[in-house]
Write a structure and sequence with these properties.
The protein is α+β, with helices and mostly antiparallel strands. It has one helix spanning 32-48, and strands at residues 3-11, 16-21, 24-29, 52-58, 64-72, 75-78. 21% of the residues lie in helices and 50% in strands. The longest helix is centred in the middle third of the chain and has 17 residues, at 32-48. The termini are far apart.
Length: 82
């Protein structure tokens, strides 16, 4: 099954956060945490339908990394090691 990916990006010019999913863009959000909250909520909903979903954040190096995953083996969790 393909994985749905929600990308959290920071628009430095406007100083706002956006969620990009496919060809769609959602926001703006005032903070990274606010954008993350909405993206995780959307990913959780896909996970309840058995879909694999990830919330990805752009790091300072310009590369995305998974911050949160849902739907793998019926689990949802932070992708960060504790």
């Amino acid at each position: 099954m393909p994985t749905a990916r929600y990308f959290i990006v920071h628009d430095k010019i406007q100083d706002e956060w956006l969620i990009k999913y496919g060809d769609d863009e959602y926001g703006p959000y005032r903070t990274q945490d606010e954008a993350m909250l909405f993206a995780i909520d959307a990913a959780k909903k896909l996970g309840t339908y058995g879909e694999n979903a990830e919330v990805c954040l752009m790091g300072e190096n310009g590369h995305f990394h998974a911050e949160w995953v849902a739907g793998r083996n019926g689990h949802a969790a932070s992708a960060r090691p504790e």
